[in-house]
C-alpha cells in the first residue's frame, strides 16, 4: 500500500491497514485535480456522490467522472490513464471565465494541464479527512476530445518526458527547441507591448491602443508581422490565454480621425474581444538562428568532417 496522508498531513498508512484487517472493507472514492492548485480555473473533481473535503489539498466537487485502469509496471515504461467526464454545464457563452467545459476542451484550454489522481479512504461516508488519500496517478493531458455529453482525456504519466529524444537538428535554422522560447519583445521594444482592445475588433482583426511601454504610440507598419498576440487574464477578461499568429499590422483611422493599431490574425479567435475589457500583449516570432537577434539555441557547429 502506498503512503496515505490524512487531512491534517499525518501519515495514516498503518492506521488504514489496521482498519482493513479489522473490518475487511472500507469506503473509497477517487479525487481528481486538473490544473494547478493555485489556479482559480483548476478542476477539483470527485466521483463520490457528494463533495469531499480533504484538507491536505482542498474540496473536490461531485461530478460524473470515471477513470480507466491504472497498471503498475517495473522500469521506465510510460503508462496512459483514460478519463471520461460528463460535466453538467453545457451552456455556451462568449467568455473563457464562464465557458462550459465542452467549449474549453474544443479551444484547447486543457491541453498539457497537469492531472493528479488520489484514492480516498473513508471510515464513514463523506469523511475524507480522518484517513485521507494516497497518490494514485500523475501526468499531463496529452489528448482531449469533446463530444455530445462527454469529454475524454488521455493522460500520459510523468515518465513520458523520458520518451522525448534530443532532435538531430539542434543548431541554427534546424533548431525546433529555439522556436518555443518564451515571449520575445518585437524589434525596437525592450518589453512586451501591451494593448487595450478598441471598438470594431473582430475574431480576425484587432483594433487596439498601446498602453505600455509607450502609451498611445503605434508600431511601424509590418513591424509585428509573424509575431503573435496573447490575451491577458483578469476578472472580466473574455479571452484569457487565447493566442494567434500575426499576419500583419497597420494603422487604423476611426471615424473621428483618431489613429489606432490594426492587427490582422492568421487564426480566428473563438469570438470577438470585448472593447475596454480585454487586453493582450504582442511578442515577436521566436528567433531560430543567430541572425534573428536574441538566439537561445546552440550556435552553429561545423560538421566534424569539415572542422579544422
Q: What does it look like?
A:
The protein is mainly β and 308 residues long. The chain folds into two domains: 4-163, no CATH class; 194-283, Elongation Factor Tu (Ef-tu), domain 3. The protein has helices at 13-23, 101-106; strands at residues 4-5, 27-34, 43-46, 52-54, 58-62, 65-67, 80-85, 114-122, 132-140, 143-147, 150-156, 194-197, 205-212, 228-231, 243-253, 259-265, 279-283. A seven-stranded mixed β-sheet has the order 1-9-8-2-3-5-4, with no helix packed on it. The longest helix is centred in the N-terminal third of the chain and has 11 residues, at 13-23. It starts with a strand and ends in a 25-residue tail after the last strand. The mean pLDDT is 87.
Distance between the termini: 60 Å
- Contiguous uncertain segments of 5+ residues: none
Gross morphology: elongated
Number of helices: 2
Walk across the major sheet and give the strand order: 1-9-8-2-3-5-4
Structure summary, number of beta strands: 17
Residues in β-strands, percent:
25-35%
Number of domains: 2
Radius of gyration from the alpha-carbon trace, in angstroms: 25 Å
Query: Which structural class is indicated by helix and strand composition?
Result: mainly beta
Helical proportion, percent range: under 10%
The biggest beta sheet is recorded as: 7 strands, mixed
Q: Give the helices and strands as they follow along the chain.
A: EHEEEEEEHEEEEEEEEEE
Give the integer mean of the pLDDT values: 87
Amino acid at each position: 500500500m502506498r503512503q496515505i496522508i490524512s487531512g491534517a498531513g499525518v501519515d495514516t498508512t498503518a492506521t488504514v491497514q489496521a482498519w482493513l484487517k479489522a473490518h475487511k472493507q472500507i469506503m473509497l472514492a477517487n479525487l481528481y485535480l486538473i490544473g494547478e492548485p493555485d489556479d482559480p480555473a483548476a478542476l477539483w473533481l470527485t466521483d463520490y456522490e457528494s463533495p469531499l473535503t480533504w484538507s491536505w489539498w482542498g474540496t473536490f466537487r461531485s461530478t460524473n467522472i470515471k477513470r480507466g485502469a491504472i497498471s503498475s509496471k517495473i522500469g521506465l515504461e510510460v503508462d496512459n490513464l483514460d478519463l471520461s467526464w460528463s460535466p453538467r454545464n453545457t451552456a455556451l457563452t462568449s467568455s473563457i471565465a464562464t465557458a462550459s467545459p465542452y467549449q474549453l476542451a474544443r479551444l484547447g484550454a486543457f491541453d498539457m494541464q497537469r492531472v493528479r489522481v488520489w484514492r480516498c479512504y473513508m471510515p464513514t461516508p463523506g469523511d475524507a479527512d480522518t484517513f485521507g488519500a494516497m497518490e494514485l496517478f500523475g501526468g499531463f493531458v496529452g489528448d482531449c476530445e469533446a463530444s455530445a455529453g462527454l469529454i475524454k482525456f488521455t493522460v500520459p504519466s510523468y515518465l513520458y518526458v523520458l520518451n522525448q529524444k534530443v532532435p538531430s537538428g539542434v543548431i541554427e535554422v534546424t533548431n525546433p527547441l529555439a522556436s518555443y522560447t518564451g515571449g520575445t519583445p518585437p524589434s525596437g521594444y525592450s518589453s512586451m507591448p501591451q494593448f487595450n482592445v478598441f471598438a470594431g475588433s473582430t475574431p480576425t482583426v484587432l483594433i487596439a491602443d498601446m498602453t505600455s511601454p509607450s502609451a498611445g504610440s503605434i508600431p511601424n507598419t509590418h513591424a509585428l508581422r509573424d509575431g503573435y498576440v496573447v490575451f491577458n487574464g483578469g476578472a472580466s477578461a473574455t479571452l484569457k490565454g487565447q493566442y494567434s499568429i500575426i499576419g500583419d499590422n497597420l494603422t487604423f483611422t476611426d471615424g473621428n480621425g483618431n489613429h489606432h493599431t490594426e492587427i490582422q490574425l492568421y487564426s480566428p479567435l473563438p469570438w470577438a474581444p470585448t472593447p475596454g475589457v480585454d487586453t493582450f500583449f504582442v511578442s515577436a516570432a521566436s528567433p531560430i538562428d543567430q541572425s534573428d537577434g536574441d538566439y537561445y539555441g546552440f550556435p552553429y557547429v561545423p560538421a566534424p568532417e569539415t572542422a579544422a
